[in-house]
Specification:
The chain is built from 39 helices and 25 strands. The protein is α/β, with parallel strands linked by helices and about 950 residues long. The strands form six sheets. It has a six-stranded antiparallel beta sheet, with helices on both faces. A five-stranded antiparallel beta sheet has the order 5-6-10-8-9. The relative contact order is 0.08.
Length: about 950
């Protein structure tokens, strides 16, 4: 277990997705249940509270503390599929998406389906009793959890799956065991308590403790198991959970049902629900007005004059497309009779479905992006009996108007009566806090008056803790207090969360957001970016890079020069040097932030004139410079590796680890020089990437450039390589380091040449390195933004070109038995992962993409400058590949491939396996038996 009191660790960990902020005294990273037990005992002895944090996506303040923050995401990430997928054993650091990826192979999934599944972890799923859009209360965490391994505040570790679990609990915790049985009998003997519990828990309800366990279970161990569910880290730590899974229905057909009024929509709801629709998502008129502004909104919605309209996003699921369509067809008579303002058109097309879901899921983005700088976006949820849904929505709209919350949206899971609403508030101003208090008082009165619950999915947290007594009454509140006392008599775990006798506690420790800079100010700190970040396990995540900029600004405003200096110094390595700037965070970000843009700008601001001049000179003479790099690797390859490594280590010590790359024996020799290739009737322009000049191919292969040209010749597709190619580059090395002058110089050389070669944009420009294809797009876009006339240039990655233009004309004569494939961050961002898979499946009988595949973080030269970054980023994927490779002697794996030379280097280094460009494997698989290897070999 590691424990840190460094300012950068404490302040980076202070932020979660909620609007509360507490800076922990220390950040601990336990590695086992036993270490958690030791941590709890130590904290109790020192008088420090403990809060557990994994995904940090909770919205109600249950994941922040001024005491010990126990980060459980880093070590607790194991999952074991049981009984052919019917059950799964999983640790709390795994995200829902990661678990479902393992279950998908068995046609199963977890019951809970929270919208934050990309980032929320099993620890939070259990702690908050997560549900979601489709699962209702029948398949939520409480209903599908079978057992768990829990660490109690005393340090006791209990596996409730053990046949003797109840006896073990009685022996280890006699007071807790007896107390739970006494509370069971107390609740059951009070008809009023039973009635209240049955009423509240017939709906989605995460308000207070899950005291329905006293009615649903008899033994103390079973009651304990289900009290832990939804307890928000106040009763114990879940080190492991076993879930009963549900059947996955991957096929879906989706449509938008738009009604003229909210009254019409809610009146039609029972009939829609009765059809068996998997999801029925509500959007009010404000939601629709905002959604209609989206670029991908359906044309009919954009053209509609929205007044008091409301809509449902309706979806039917099935194990395959036919079953989903059959479910829709069965509901047709009901749906066709609905009084709609627009035709209800179902679609199974992925792009069209994505656009429809963007209407619903994009609401968070739209409202969050539109908020004023310095304000906080608040996303709340409540639940009411379905017959009162109209009254609840109408009442909320009246409250928005009365309290001046303009453009606040209402949406949610209509068939459950579960409403989400968003508003923005300036929590740093007393006037804003007072307005928020007044709104909350009125909202509580409204929801409870309709027989609802103040929390449906997001957990009680700090935000609703003072209102638990009001919802349940004195008797059941006293039961909950006794539950807390029995489990945690010393109040070690998460004090102030879930229960609070202070009526104003929800207004304390509010997070403020001082304006800093464009990328930072847009961030809502949701944490969706974190699972994709390659530096997440070694330094910081994108969210943490952003919040530390806020913390630095807050320290400067407060005049805390010492804190500001410490944060600034440590941020250089953790925030700037170890960011791969791969942009994968942007793909997951609901407000479209690319933290790499922030880091590139910071690098540019810190670059010296000498360094900028050197890189500008390199851009001016890139042909010789890139060739010298390749020759240097060839020379180094001929020398003893320890000698070369020692020389680079000396350079790193003198000039800095972020300046001088570190050599290792795994690096290849240099590649070959790029040369023009004139043809009479080209069908495409080929931009051979310069990384093929610097880094030779794996194992003496021909490399991607020669392989692509050979495939074009074989397929009868003529491509031209433009004059001056040896001095061209996509500009990524300058952009990633923040050297704007060199980037502009390369743009001025490359884009005019490509525009001419492509016949003014008529021909596509194909590149054989995915990151360089992306770099060319960025080069073009930057030039267009600056007023350049290059929008006509079309860039296509060689993998995509091969899939669509070459494969149909090629014959596979020697297919590989199996292949392990590494999609890159650039193939993902370019949208060509599907093409990469198609190409791989064309030349290999069995293709495996590791479940834990992600960015390798080699990032050009980042893997040479900071090899520890690549080692961390690839660790989980490498472990999976090792398992796959262990059967290689029996023919389990015969090849390893990717689509970018530096990524191939990174994965070869991480796994010890020879990763090659997929086009090299295609060339070999389609090569006629009598044909010699095509193209010149790399220069040695």
């Amino acid at each position: 277990m590691t424990v840190s009191t460094k300012a950068i660790d404490r302040h980076a960990s202070a932020h979660d997705a909620s609007h509360y902020l507490l800076v922990p005294a220390e950040v601990a990273r336990p590695g086992s249940a036993r270490e958690v037990a030791d941590l709890l005992v130590s904290a109790r002895e020192r008088g420090l509270p403990v809060t557990f944090r994994s995904g940090g996506t909770s919205l109600s303040g249950q994941g922040v503390t001024a005491g010990v923050l126990a980060d459980t995401r880093h070590s607790f990430r194991a999952a074991e599929v049981l009984d052919g997928g019917r059950r799964v054993r999983v640790q709390p650091g795994m995200t829902v998406r990661q678990v479902n990826a393992r279950l998908a192979r068995h046609g199963r999934k977890l019951g809970p389906d929270p919208a934050s599944e990309i980032a929320c972890t099993i620890g939070g799923v259990v702690a908050n009793n997560s549900s979601g859009m489709a699962c209702g209360i029948e398949q939520n965490t409480y209903r599908t959890l079978e057992s768990l391994v829990v660490v109690l505040p005393s340090g006791t570790i209990l596996d409730t799956a053990a046949p003797e679990a109840d006896d073990l609990l009685r022996a280890a915790e006699p007071a807790l065991h007896a107390g739970l049985l006494a509370l069971r009998d107390r609740v059951r003997s009070d008809p009023a308590s039973v009635a209240s519990i049955e009423r509240f828990f017939a709906m989605k309800n995460t308000m207070g403790y899950g005291i329905n366990a006293f009615l649903d279970f008899d033994t103390a161990a079973d009651i304990l198991t289900h009290l832990i569910v939804g307890s928000e880290g106040t009763l114990g730590f879940v080190a492991e959970a076993v879930f009963r899974t549900v059947v996955a229905h991957p096929a879906a057909t989706t449509a938008l049902a738009v009604f003229e009024t909210l009254e019409q929509a809610t009146a039609a709801l029972p009939a829609i629900v009765a059809t068996g629709a998997a999801t029925v998502e509500l959007m009010d008129s404000t939601s629709l007005r905002l959604a209609a502004r989206a670029h991908d909104a359906p044309a009919e919605l954009r053209d509609l004059t929205i007044d008091d309209h409301a809509a449902f996003l309706v979806e039917f699921h099935g194990p395959d497309a036919a079953e989903a369509e059959a479910a829709r067809a069965e509901a047709a008579s009901v749906l066709d009779a609905l009084p709609l303002s627009l035709p209800m058109r179902f679609t199974t097309d992925p792009a069209e479905r994505a656009a429809l879901w963007h209407i619903r899921k994009g609401l968070y983005t739209t409202v969050a992006e539109a908020r004023a700088p310095g304000t906080t976006a608040l996303l709340e949820d409540v639940v009411v009996p379905v017959p009162t849904l109209l009254a609840a929505c109408a009442g909320l709209r009246e409250l928005f108007a009365a309290h001046g919350y303009e453009d606040s949206v209402i949406f949610g899971h209509a068939k459950d009566g579960n409403i989400h609403f968003m508003l923005s508030e300036r929590l740093g101003d007393q006037a804003g806090v007072d307005r928020y208090r007044a709104f909350t008082d009125d909202m509580v009165e409204l929801i409870l008056g309709l027989g609802g619950s103040l929390k449906a999915e997001h957990g009680t947290g700090r935000i609703m803790a003072p209102f638990v007594r009001r919802q349940y009454g004195d008797e059941l509140y006293a039961v909950m207090q006794e539950v807390k006392r029995l489990f945690d008599p010393h109040g070690v775990l998460n004090p102030g969360v879930l229960l609070s006798d202070d009526p104003d506690s929800y207004l304390r420790d509010l997070k403020t957001a001082p304006p800093v800079e464009e990328e930072v100010d847009r961030c809502v700190e949701c944490g969706y970016c974190e699972p994709a970040c390659p530096s997440r396990d070694i330094t910081l995540t994108p969210r943490q890079r952003i919040v530390l900029r806020r913390e630095l600004r807050a320290a400067e405003l407060a005049g805390d020069d010492a804190l500001a200096a410490e944060l600034r110094d440590d941020y250089e390595y953790a925030g700037v040097q170890t960011c791969a700037v791969d942009g994968m965070c942007q793909a997951a970000c609901p407000v479209n932030i690319n933290t790499g843009d922030l880091v590139r700008r910071l690098r540019g601001e810190s670059n010296s004139r000498v360094a900028a001049g050197a890189w500008d000179a390199a851009a001016a003479a890139w042909g010789p410079v890139s060739r010298v790099g390749g020759v240097a690797l060839t020379v180094a390859d001929a020398l003893p590796a320890p000698l070369v490594r020692a020389a680079t280590d000396v350079g790193r010590a003198l000039l800095g680890a972020d300046t001088v790359p570190r050599y290792d024996a795994g690096l290849p020799r240099g590649g070959r020089k790029r040369v023009p290739r004139p043809v009479a009737e080209p069908q495409a322009v080929f931009f051979a990437a310069c990384i093929g000049t610097m880094f030779g191919a794996e194992g003496g292969g021909m490399g991607s450039t020669a392989a692509f040209l050979a495939l074009c010749d074989r397929a009868g597709v003529e491509v031209v390589v433009p004059d001056g190619i040896s001095s061209m580059c996509c500009g990524t090395p300058w952009k990633s380091k923040g050297f704007h002058g060199g980037h502009e110089r390369m743009s001025e050389r490359v884009l005019p040449a490509l525009l001419a070669a492509s016949r003014d944009g008529e021909l596509p420009v194909v590149c054989d390195a995915a990151s360089c294809t992306e770099g060319l797009e960025a080069l073009r876009d930057a030039a267009v933004t600056a007023g350049g006339d290059y929008a006509r240039l079309r860039f296509v990655d060689s993998v995509d070109f091969a899939a669509n233009a070459l494969l149909p004309a090629l014959e596979v004569v020697d297919a590989l038995p199996s292949l392990v494939l590494h999609p890159t961050c650039s193939t993902g961002r370019l949208g060509v992962d599907g093409s990469l898979r198609r190409v791989a499946e064309a030349v290999a009988i069995d293709v495996t993409v590791p479940i834990d595949a992600g960015c390798c973080a080699f990032a050009g030269d980042r893997g040479l400058l900071h090899p520890e970054l690549t080692a961390s980023a690839t660790a989980r994927e490498a472990a999976e590949v090792e398992v796959l490779a262990s059967g290689a002697a029996a023919g389990t794996v015969t090849a390893y491939a990717s689509a970018n030379r530096t990524c191939e280097l990174g994965m070869s280094r991480a796994t010890g396996q020879p990763y090659r460009h997929i086009l090299e494997l295609v060339e070999e698989a389609t090569r006629p038996t009598s044909e010699a290897p095509a193209g010149p070999q790399p220069t040695r």
